Fold:
Amino acid sequence: MRRDGVALIISFEGVSSRAEAALLRNAVIEVQEKNLPALPENKFYHRQILGLVVVTSEGKKIGHIAEIIETGSNDVYVVKGSEKEYLIPAIKDVISCIDLSSGTITITPMKGLLE
Structure:
């Protein structure tokens, strides 16, 4: 496995041609965590983000990340609160801190974001 820009190039034992590889198109591929490439600082795999609790910089709990929507410019976190669902853009102006050890994401909401 090697990185090519933002994509990963993966080879499989016993698969030696594009035609053989095409037979695997849309297959589910599982990789052991120890074999995943290290990410740069402040970059995370989606599996690390899903389920984290979202709180505001004032300490108010908003909910947990239930889904991640990939857009062309930035991801959007779907946060399920107790009574409402929020769409939180994964941008520096909003995401203050992602703390995997505490299982939280702290946000500084822009005006109208949580309304």
About this structure: The mean pLDDT is 91. The chain has two helices and eight strands. The two ends are 44 Å apart (CA to CA).
